[in-house]
Amino acid sequence: MTPPPTDYPLQDTASQDWDSSLSAQLYGINAWGAGYFGVSGDGQVQVNVEFDGKPVKVSIMDIVSGMHERGLHMPAILRIRNLLDHRVEVLNQSFARAIADGGYKNCYRGVYPIKVNQQCHVVEEIADYGRRFNHGFEAGSKAELIIAMSQLRDSDGLIICNGYKDAEFIELGLYAVQMGIPCFFVVESLSELPIIVERSKALGIEPLIGVRIKTTVAVDGYWSQDSGDRSIFGLSTAALMRLVDGLRDAGMLHCLRLLHCHLGSQIPNIRNVRSGVLEACRFYAGLVQEGAPMGHIDLGGGLAVDYEGARTNSTHSMNYRLDEYCANIVESICETLDPLDIGHPVIISESGRATVAYSSMLLFNILNVSNTQPTSAEEEPPEDCVETLKNLYDIQARLSTENFQECYNDALFYRDELRELFHHGTASLRERAMAENVFLQVVHRIAAMLPQLKRVPPELQDLQEQLSDIYYGNFSLFQSLPDIWAIDQLFPIMPIHRLDEKPERSAILADLTCDCDGKIDRFSTPEGERNVLPLHKFTPGQEYYLGVFLVGAYQETLGDLHNLFGDTNVVNVSVNPDGSFEFAREFQGDSIADVLSYVEYEPKQLQENFRLVAEKAVRDGKISVAQRSQIVQAFRESLHGYTYFENH
Fold first, then answer.
1. Residue 572 above 90 pLDDT?
2. Which long-range contacts (CB under 8 A, 24 or more apart) does 19-24 make?
3. 89 has pLDDT over 60
4. How many other C-beta atoms are found inside a 10 Å radius of the C-beta of residue 402?
5. Which of 98, 400, 481, 578: disulfide with 330, CB 3.0–4.6 Å?
């Protein structure tokens, strides 16, 4: 798939009839969608898949209809298996092209870091599709190593073991080596070396050893502290020499075959990548000169995802394409090692985010809207009202484009003055309500004037945001989108239908949790980051669906049980060449009983406890036996229901 160009201007839509192409520009889907997503002529978001060069498009709303028919309701994670497969394929093919074009004399071996998304069906799909490319796994714990050893489909695929390792961890990896699986122990700390030496000699299995080094290149982006001298991972140069000497003393220097260097996560600037690889290659050459056979260089993660579609070096974007990334790595290795007559190593990368992000999206429906729209008011104030309220009415009557600044200042003053009168008991509750409503009428009229002005005063530039609606979504930010709360991550968010209509409301999003942090008020647009999202008018009784895209990396793994909202429904869909699609896997989200068991409640005991409470209510004459039966049944059904809002 060839992503479309992103340097298009956003058209002036003020005097045009609205259509789907304008919605595509408004939400930037042709930029951040990387060719995988688009908008149909009838206003629905589509998934784009290619089969032998032929594009196939499937409406997400058609998939949602199929979900509802199967009893899988909102919110839900939708995974498109074709996109996951394509990401594995395009990563391997891009490196293959760079290797061929650069005359590189070795190969590429990708490994998927399981921590990025440990869900079984994700790992299984990567293992199944990745076997044709010898795609392996990276494991940072014993649990992840067990996954890797059981799921790897190809004996030429690598397993890279990072993180701190105890004897059991090392034994597992040694058994993998014994079975013919290339399983590398990447030494993170010198304390691991004696355990590796002792266990390998005790079992009579020679280990494959790698070493993680610290580089001095500090990368751009949110995770800049992952790199440089203060990185919490990797050996210093002095510690690296002690490792080499220790292996030589143990007669195992020949086991040192891999250099690991994690340049950083979500690296937005290609210059950081090139600088980091050049420095890593110097370490690699030094280890070869020390007598280690080497043969593999692992450059860790860092391949970014352009969540904004801006193609810049901002934290949530990237100023390079995949082909450029691969070519820079290949060229940098050749540039360093060729003059030293050192053979080209196997190139390894641990690209997790770029592999899985595109394949998953969170879908949810809007439940309700809170807005600042004023109600209609009497043209004249009541005769016996306080003078301050009369002043507000006067401002409303004389407001124009010539005096809007003065009227805004006066309206703020009189509104605040009436609030003070109310606090002191001088103004009534009804007068305060009337004042608030008139004030809203004034500021809404001023906000409508602003687009017509050549210059907007600084204090009024965010007036539209202050008047924005709150759209309440059927999801938990902390369960499904924790990075928004934790690290201010931006994800593309947009309606998945009605895109042939002009979205005329400005809104922020709130979730179901009883938490002031359970909101989204930062959004990516083609014009830069904004604090409101354009949305369509919400009509109660009519479903309105939003999608949060590119959420395949980390979100499910990091999600928590805030307010005991559990895992959502999950659907894995495969698109067919004829445009049809199959529900390949379905996973019901957590029931209330499930999440209660996670926090050590026993659902059966809860039922029994409640039965006793209901029985006491019968004895006390508060309910009848028939009512008791009905109440206990409702309790039992709720216990096994979805943790999210359900329409009945």
1. yes
2. 19/500, 20/499, 20/500, 22/502, 23/494, 23/499, 23/500, 23/503, 24/499
3. yes
4. 9
5. 98
Helix/strand/coil for 319: coil
| DSSP H/E element including 110 | strand 108-113
Residues of the chain with pLDDT > 90: what percent?
84
Please state, in angstroms and rounded to a whole number, the distance separating the CA atoms of residues 107 and 93.
11
CA distance 299 to 261: 5
Q: Which amino acid is at 494?
A: M
* 223 confidence band (pLDDT: 50, 70, 90): low
Most confident of 231-235, 510-514, 557-561: 510-514
Q: What is the pLDDT of residue 264?
A: 83
The SS3 call for residue 130 is helix
Strand boundaries in 290-421, DSSP class E: 296-298, 346-349, 360-370
Q: To the nearest whole percent, how much of the chain has pLDDT over 70?
A: 96
How close are the terminal C-alpha atoms of the chain, in Å?
A: 42
For the chain, list the domains and their CATH numbers. 158-351 (3.20.20.10), 387-464 (1.20.58.930), 593-639 (no CATH)
* Residues β-bridged to residue 495: 546
Average pLDDT over residues 522-547: 92
